[in-house]
From TrEMBL:
This is MFS transporter. The chain crosses the membrane at residues 21-46, 58-78, 85-106, 112-133, 235-257, 263-287, 299-316, 363-381, 387-407. InterPro entries: MFS, MFS_trans_sf. It comes from the Bacteria. It is found in: Cell membrane.
Length: 434
């Protein structure tokens, strides 16, 4: 059984365990702090250190490049470590890195290179933290509560994208962007304290299978092979890469489209872009309900079709016409996040505990690998064909991925499959690594 997703009549306990609530509070503080700091670092680079487009691009790349560089080794290592201890150490290192920004600023030694280094360290800590997170979640909630727990986590993360940038602007205006980064350091410490107070029950939805110690490279290859050999994991990983390519093109061009082509005021631009975050919050909260009502396979199929509403962006025009973009972003983000809640919950029960981090980081690495290529391609298309045409091409790529869902491995299923026999995924991984 895949928790409550497989049983329409069985509902999760209305109250999540105290261990999860303590961890969730710390995680909420941390993600809001991180969302705020992402904007603060950009403001600091642009306003205090006179960064040009090149440096701004390098700063942005420093945040996500750790997924490409460290994703696979991190997954292989974290699968062997205590998830709670790993996450606490990640928070402490990230807090120390964030604290260096105000320290260097006060002493007059802050440089663009230092900002890039801080962004890279915090991004690296995020890779390790996110790799360990699924293994902690399945230890602090029962299997039938996984959907609710993931719902809370995704909704919180989406809310941070709405509040974070605006809060960053207020903080920068009140105390300066550099000192504002100190709040992120504090948020990491709050997360670490909450994790230290979290007492996992030692359970796992899909327990680990005992395996002998292996060299790191073999463990990496085993994790990749698990994703490559399983038809569901392989399909979802490929879908994530294709759709991330399309969505990153939208994210790269949307501000230029609103401000440059439609002359939308900055306040209106902010409200339109915030609509996506609002949709994500709603999707995070409603994901488990969609799964219960439609099924954990039919639900994602329906949500993928709803996400094609991103095409409404192409109807956007001046004045009140920006409402089309707000509606498209809201509906699309709602569907994406709700789908993520359902599929993440399923993966926590489908993949054995000792493969969770490797499978998660393999899929995420593929998704993030599409981002830099998409940024380059969408920028070139915008320059050659115009921003609206470039948006149409990138959104068509996203929609093409979504339209494969009814014909993929979920075709004809109401629910995603139950876990295979405990050793089958492990055997698939060891086949190439042995």
């Amino acid at each position: 059984m895949v928790g409550h997703l497989q049983d329409r009549g069985r509902r999760p306990s209305p109250r999540l365990p105290r261990a999860f609530r303590v961890f969730w509070f710390g995680e909420a503080v941390s993600v809001f702090g991180t969302a705020t700091t992402a904007t603060l670092l950009s403001l600091l680079a642009a306003t205090q250190l006179d960064a040009g487009p090149g440096w701004m691009g390098v700063l942005a790349a420093a945040s996500w490049s750790p997924w490409l560089i460290l994703g696979l080794p991190a997954g292989a290592l974290v699968d062997r470590w205590s998830p709670r201890t790993t996450m606490i150490v990640s928070d402490l290192v990230a807090a120390a890195a964030a604290a260096t920004v105000p320290l260097l600023w006060v002493t007059g030694r802050l440089t663009l290179a230092a900002l890039v280094a801080v962004a890279f360290v915090i991004g690296s800590c995020a890779v390790v933290f996110r790799a360990a997170l699924p293994r902690l979640v399945i230890r602090v909630v029962d299997a039938e509560q996984l959907g609710t727990a993931n719902s809370r986590l995704y909704a919180t993360e989406s809310a941070s994208t709405v509040v974070g940038p605006g809060l960053a602007g207020l903080i920068a205006q009140a105390v300066s962007a550099a000192l504002g980064v100190l709040l992120d350091a504090v948020s990491f410490l709050v997360s670490a304290v909450c994790l230290a107070r979290t007492r996992p029950a030692g359970r796992a939805s899909n327990p680990a299978v005992a395996v002998p110690e292996e060299p790191l490279l073999h463990r990496i290859r085993a994790g990749v092979n698990v994703v490559a050999r399983d038809r569901y994991l392989r399909y979802f990983a490929g879908l994530a890469a294709v759709q991330n390519f399309g969505l990153t093109g939208l994210l790269s061009l949307q501000v230029l489209f609103l401000v440059g082509e439609l002359a939308a005021p900055q306040a209106v631009t902010g409200l339109v872009l915030a609509a996506g975050g609002v949709g994500g919050v709603i999707g995070g909260l409603l994901g488990p309900h969609v799964a219960r009502r439609l099924g954990s396979a039919r639900g994602p199929i329906a949500l993928q079709l709803v996400s094609c509403s991103c095409l409404l962006v192409l109807l956007t025009g001046p004045g009140a016409g920006v409402g089309w973009m707000a509606a498209g972003l809201l509906l699309c983000e709602f569907a994406i996040v709700a789908d993520n809640v359902i599929r993440t919950t399923w993966r926590l029960t489908y993949v054995p505990d000792n493969l969770q981090a490797r499978v998660s980081t393999t899929i995420q690495m593929l998704a993030f690998a599409a981002m830099p290529a998409s940024g380059l391609v969408s920028g070139w298309l915008g320059h050659q064909l115009g921003v609206r045409t470039a948006l149409a091409i990138m959104l068509a790529i996203y929609v093409a991925g979504a339209l494969t869902m009814p014909f993929g491995p979920l075709k004809g299923r109401r629910n995603l499959p139950a876990p295979p026999r405990p050793s089958r995924l492990l055997d698939a991984g060891l086949e190439i690594a042995g």
